[in-house]
Each structure stands twice: as C-alpha cells, then as structure tokens.
C-alpha cells in the first residue's frame, strides 16, 4: 500500500498529499492506531506469524486497542506473556501528543495536540445536560479560506491520518476516563468486583452513562477534502467491535464539497451538516469562497440527494450570524424559500459569530439573531441559536492554535488573496 496518494478531486487548490495507512517512524516500529483489523492481521503475518495466529492475535489486539483503550501491549492479559515483547518490539500504540489542555468555567475542554512530525491541531469537548460532544479535526489548517474562520487564515499543513483522527476520540476517552473497565458487558458492569481502584469505579463504563456521546467533524479542516482518512477513522469509531459509537451520533460538517457528498452518505453514512452561511451568490462567494466552485443551487441539490437524509435524520444548515452581512429579514426569508424549494429535511443552526483578533466581521446583535430565528421558525423549520461555549478558553475553531502563531492583518490579507487565486 502506498504511503501517499492524491485525493481524486479536480482543481488545483484541492488535492493535497495524504499520508495514508502507515506513517514511518524513526525506530522502525509501526503504529497500529488507525488500522483496521484486517490490516493488523496482515502486518502480524508479514512479521512472521502464520495466517491463523495472525488473524486471532489481530482480533485480540484490535479489541484491546479500540474497545478497551489499551495503551501498551502489557495490558493485554489474554495474550501470552511471551508474545507481548514480540509485539512491543515491532509495534506501538500511538496517541496524539497533548501540548496544552484547557478547561473552561462552563465545562468545555480544549486540547492543543501535536502530530509525531510536529504539527499542531485542536480538539474540543463540549458537555451538555443530555450529551457530550467531541469536536474533531480532520486537517492541520485548511485549504479553504472562509472569511470569518480562524482556521482559514492558516496554511494547510497536511491531512490528518486515520490514526490521528481516531486518536483524538481515543485521547478524549483517556482524558474522560471512559474506557470500559473489568468485564466487557458494559450495561451490567455496575457492581462488578473487578472495578479496581476508586478512580475506576467512578468512571465505570455503562452504555448510557457516558460523557462522550457524540462526535462532530467540525474542528480544523475540511473533512471532505480528506475523505479516505476521515472515512477510515470513522469506520473504526462506528465499528461495534471498535469504539462502537452509532453513526446517528456522528455529524460531518462540510463547507460544500459537492462531488464528495454522495460518497459521504454512502460510504460513511453519518449525519450531514452544511456550512451554508449565506443565501445569495455574492455574499457566499465572498465569505465561503468554495461557493465559486460549487454554487448554492448545486450544493442544495446534493443535499436533497444525500443518502439517508429524512425527517428523522435532518441535514443541519450552519449559519454564522455576521452583522450587516448575512443577517437581514430578506436573508432569513430566502433561506426558508431555498429549503422549501429543494424540499430539504432541514434544521438550521444559527451560530453567533465568535470574533478573533483581526476578524473582518462583528457578530449580529442578539435582537437581530432572534428575529432571524423567528422568521425561519415561523416557516416551520427549527432554527435554534447556538449558545457560545468555552469563550474564556477561545474554544472556537482555530483559536488556540492561532493564539500561538499570531499573524499580521497584512499577512492574513495576503493568504486570503493566495487562496482566492487558487480557487480560480
Ligand atoms: N470545514 C468544515 C468543518 C469545520 S468548520 C466546515 O466548514 O463546515 C466548523 C463550523 O464552524 C463551520 O460551520 C464554520 O463555519 C464554523 N465557524 C468557523 N469559524 C467560526 C467563528 N469564528 N464563529 C462561529 N462559527 C465559526
Ligand atoms: Fe476551512 Fe471550515 Fe474554516 Fe471554511 S469554515 S476555512 S472550510 S475549517
């Protein structure tokens, strides 16, 4: 299998090298995180086990990695003691490195993470009364340049590998103490006498008592420009023998990479969120520049055709509220018209703009947002206003990373011009 491949998406700003499958390490060992069971079995066979042994060991190791969260081979108690050093010599169980972890007063947690080759990216956990949502990154930076988004001001460094994507979920489970302890049948785990230390008892893993219940691919990057890696990572997250999170609890957000949307529905099958943010060509071309390539009509038609969308599984339209830019009554009416015209099973998420230093916009006034929401709501479409979370730790997209590498306004403008030129 090749280490690098190009995404088959036309256009010069899109394809970026995808380090895939196995990223070589200096010590020659192979990181197993991000690999499916079948691939692990192949590697065990290549390392010298006979086919039957390789398959059996892969099954056991896979279970320990993704289901139990083991971070070392010594913890794998059903694997012979003599076998464990053999594994340790050849393989590692990686996690992204934590550079910084922040805790907001409202419970939101944010991590600045680092890849093995020293690229920083972010992950955010947002607890609510009835759920806990992990916001996962798909790329370091982003090739796109939405005007209101801090990540858009960063250069794309590279796509994250499946291991780095699924590794975020695993790291969150580590941090939240959410791996099953003791027996495997979670639901009746309570009272099990192998619960161990106080710490373990406190974080006992039951299917409905979890902190981390939902995943959104809404961190740094455009997930549909890193399709294969995002798909491979989410397969591990959704696998009943793996992290076992239902696809109904996973949402992928795209700025509108139309040619990949059908495959997203078919091959991943998760909920779709679309960063619409504007209803006219002029405004969307300006604030979500991918619109010049895939326009609003094309995007909404792809939404109407999205496999699996229904009234029970609605498509979320994200709409960031920018003062005097996209927040008029006319905009709200046009949004309703478009959703009805394309007969979309839709809900609208109104996101108060989270300002960052040098941002060219302000957030709409609360009264304006309320009025916008009411117009959409009165047309029978749900349009809640998202409460900003973790503001004290700058938990919005791209902010922790950029705090570490501040750019001048002139440099931001130059980057914007560069990316616009690339979009053609
Ligand atoms: N690239 C994907 C997913 C990551 S962005 C996409 O664009 O959909 C996730 C969401 O955060 C998007 O809806 C994006 O528009 C929104 N967002 C980015 N910067 C923001 C800001 N400063 N304030 C509010 N929302 C923002
Ligand atoms: Fe990239 Fe999404 Fe930010 Fe746009 S909003 S620049 S697509 S991360």
Give the SSE string: EEEHHHEEEEEEEHHEHEHEHHEHEHHH
| Arithmetic mean of pLDDT | 85
Radius of gyration: 22 Å
The N- to C-terminal Cα distance equals: 33 Å
Please sum up the structure shown:
The protein has 13 helices and 15 strands. It has helices at about 35-45, 50-65, 85-90, 160-175, 200, 225-240, 260-270, 280-285, 295-305, 330-340, 365-380, 400-405, 410-424, and strands spanning about 5, 15-20, 30, 90, 95-105, 110-115, 120-125, 130-135, 140, 160, 215, 250-255, 270-275, 315-320, 345-350.
What does it look like?
It is a single chain. With 424 residues, the chain is of the alpha/beta class. Helices cover 33% and strands 16% of the residues. The protein is built from 13 helices and 15 strands. It has helices spanning 37-46, 51-67, 83-90, 162-176, 198-202, 227-238, 258-268, 281-287, 296-304, 329-341, 366-378, 399-404, 409-423; strands at 4-6, 17-19, 30-31, 91-92, 97-103, 109-114, 120-127, 132-135, 139-140, 158-159, 214-217, 250-254, 271-275, 315-321, 346-352. The protein has a 9-stranded mixed sheet with strand order 5-6-7-8-11-12-13-14-15, with helices on one face. The chain has a two-stranded antiparallel sheet with strand order 1-2. Strand 14, helix 10 and strand 15 form a beta-alpha-beta unit. Helix 1 (37-46) crosses helix 2 (51-67), helix 4 (162-176) packs parallel to helix 6 (227-238) and helix 7 packs parallel to helix 9 (296-304). The radius of gyration is 22 Å and the shape is elongated. The two termini are 33 Å apart.
């Amino acid at each position: 299998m090749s280490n690098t491949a190009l995404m088959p998406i036309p256009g010069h700003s899109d394809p970026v090298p995808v380090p895939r499958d196995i990223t070589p390490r200096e010590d020659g060992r192979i990181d197993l995180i991000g690999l499916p069971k079948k691939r692990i079995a192949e590697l065990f066979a290549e390392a010298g086990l006979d086919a039957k042994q390789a398959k059996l060991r892969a099954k056991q190791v896979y279970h320990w990695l993704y289901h139990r969260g083991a971070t070392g081979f010594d913890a794998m108690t059903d694997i012979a003691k003599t076998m464990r050093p053999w594994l340790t010599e050849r393989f590692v169980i990686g996690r992204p490195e934590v550079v910084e972890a922040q805790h907001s007063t409202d419970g939101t947690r944010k991590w600045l993470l680092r890849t093995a080759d020293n690229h920083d990216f972010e992950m955010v956990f947002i607890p609510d009364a009835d759920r806990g949502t992990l916001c996962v990154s798909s790329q370091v930076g982003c090739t796109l340049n939405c005007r209101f988004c801090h990540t858009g001001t960063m250069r794309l460094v590279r796509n994250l590998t499946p291991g780095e994507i699924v590794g975020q979920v695993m790291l969150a489970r580590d941090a939240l103490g959410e791996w099953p302890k003791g027996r495997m049948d979670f639901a009746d785990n309570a009272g099990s006498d192998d619960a161990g230390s106080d710490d373990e008892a406190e974080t006992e893993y039951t299917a409905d008592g979890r902190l981390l219940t939902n995943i959104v691919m809404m961190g740094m990057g455009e997930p549909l420009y890193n399709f294969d890696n995002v798909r491979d990572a989410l397969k591990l997250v959704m696998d009943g023998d793996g992290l076992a999170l239902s696809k109904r609890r996973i949402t992928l957000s795209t700025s509108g990479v139309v040619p990949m949307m059908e495959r997203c529905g078919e091959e991943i099958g998760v909920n779709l969120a679309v960063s619409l943010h504007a209803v006219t060509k002029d405004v969307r071309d300006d604030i979500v520049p991918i619109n010049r390539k895939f326009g609003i009509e094309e995007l909404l038609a792809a939404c109407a055709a999205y496999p699996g969308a229904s009234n029970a599984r609605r498509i979320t339209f994200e709409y960031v509220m920018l003062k005097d830019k996209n927040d008029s009554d006319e905009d709200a009416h046009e949004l309703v018209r478009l959703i009805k015209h394309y007969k979309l099973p839709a809900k609208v998420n109104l996101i108060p703009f989270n300002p960052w230093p040098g941002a060219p916009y302000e957030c709409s006034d609360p009264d304006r947002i309320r009025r916008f929401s009411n117009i959409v709501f009165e047309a029978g479409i749900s349009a809640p206003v998202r409460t900003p979370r973790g503001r004290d730790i700058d938990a919005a997209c791209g902010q922790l990373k950029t705090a570490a590498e501040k750019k001048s306004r002139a440099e931001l403008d130059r980057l914007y011009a560069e990316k616009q030129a690339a979009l053609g």
